User: Fold these one by one.
Assistant:
Number 1:
Amino acid sequence: MKILVTGSNGLVGSRLARVLVAQGHEVLGASRGTKTAAGAYAYVGLELSDAMAVDRAVDAFAPEVIINPASMTEVDACEKDPERAYRANVTAVANLAIAARRVGAHLLQVSTDYVFDGDHGPYGEDDVPNPRGVYAITKHMGEEAVRALAKPGAWTIARTAVVYGWPAAARPNFGAWLVNALCAKQTVKLFVDQIVTPSLADNVAEMLAELGTRRLAGIFHVCGATAVDRYTFGQKLCGVFGFDRSLLVPSKLADLKLASPRPLHSALRTEKIREALKVQPLSLDEQLRRFHSAWCEGRGSAAA
Ligand SMILES: NC(=O)c1ccc[n+]([C@@H]2O[C@H](COP(=O)([O-])OP(=O)(O)OC[C@H]3O[C@@H](n4cnc5c(N)ncnc54)[C@H](OP(=O)(O)O)[C@@H]3O)[C@@H](O)[C@H]2O)c1
């Protein structure tokens, strides 16, 4: 199958492209600038908010499936620069949806738990979004662009949450940031009052690959199987990695003066994805075991 993977230099996109190549698919990776992620697939430098550039790339490759993890993901940066967030999270998605429809490709859009306000989690796929803050609002607008512009029945929205993995891609992720800080014996403040469903990037990539290649239409929550607050996540991580738990400082979301609001309880329900897919969302314990193995392997190869 011919599959266009955007954001292929990013955390999810880089892993997704490699999973699909390993499954024998013909992958075209797309990100801005040059290819920085490992993997044997073709690559195009592409600014997704440029409609003509998107059209050219899509027409030339003629994908059967387009998977779009590309996004402006820094929540506070989106709050400070809403126009850039709009271009990356809405205009880019609209461009892809229009191009997908024209060439008859299925579009799988990657979205976020932040489309929910966090007042009444955990959330199922049928719950009504109420995004707060620029990142959340633009991601929700991206979902709406898919629903309006992609061919009916030929789109999927996959919402994920707190994605982490080792090695990190271009930007640090929650898990890698935590490991680096604890390894350096720095104290870290972690929220006791924000409940999320942490998701190992490799597991997310495998679930997205199955959703995309089977072209399962509709909305799916594609995340880890365990809802947990960030402080408890840190404690469990310390247990698996052998880090000092006293470095973790419990804090509350309201204590930090963050530019953008965050949902308090945005955990996602996973019944639908468990029912639909062969690849299953991993428990937090299993995620942390795999995260630790990847970290040990990375340290081994860095030392070699
Ligand atoms: N990471 C999380 O905790 C998390 C949680 C919930 C949902 N999600 C969703 O999961 C998806 C993947 O996230 P991720 O962690 O893999 O993000 P990431 O590591 O930040 O990667 C995003 C990629 O998108 C590219 N990109 C951004 N704007 C672009 C544009 N205008 N044109 C072309 N490429 C552009 C970035 O390129 P540059 O490097 O050039 O900027 C980067 O390669 C996103 O849709 C995000 O909203 C992530």
Number 2:
Amino acid sequence: MGNSAIERLLTRRSVLARNMTEPGPDPEQTAQILTAAARVPDHGKIAPWRFILLRNDGRQKLGAVLRDAYRDIEAEASEAKLDLESGKFTRAPLVIVVVSSPLSSHKVPVWEQQLSCGAVCQNILHAADALGFAGQWITEWCAYHPKVRDALGITAEEQIAGFIYIGTAIEPPKERPRPELQDIVTDWQGVTDWQGPLS
Ligand SMILES: Cc1cc2nc3c(=O)[nH]c(=O)nc-3n(C[C@H](O)[C@H](O)[C@H](O)COP(=O)(O)O)c2cc1C
């Protein structure tokens, strides 16, 4: 596989955040990734999403919030477990928090605004991949914990669509099983035994 757009689309894989290291994108590359992120289909042109960057010391500082929040989940958590949970954001040099900020009063349904946010997340993965970086879209418990949401300034109307970890892969990821097209594609005319390329 080479580097054409279709080849990248057909081969991109997520890399586990714990398998990432430095370097991450530099400021110019980060801006490119975010520009690609914001260039998604967006019914009504309302940009119902926003980004929070976690990098450098900010990742450790937020770790104190994670430590406190994780105690709510597991009161008896060991120090080792708390260290693991509070260090989450340091697994990669850059974490982009993608926030879904739909306008509930807008004529465009909230569902469509949320779909646009999903496209944002995928564009980030593809942009990172195109620049030679590894990426992973993760929510984990922290996307839903009120203390983490508060620390990040997420409002009641907003959702964390994902923490997108970006860095350099320690090792190339192995492929994982993918759905067979015959299991997910049906022909409008009712052909369900489709076995090969559309003709
Ligand atoms: C909204 C969303 C949330 C996810 N959250 C997690 C998560 O919390 N933990 C995890 O291991 N994978 C999570 N994943 C899955 C990974 O991002 C990814 O799909 C998986 O590693 C395989 O990715 P690939 O098909 O791009 O190679 C999530 C995926 C999505 C779309």
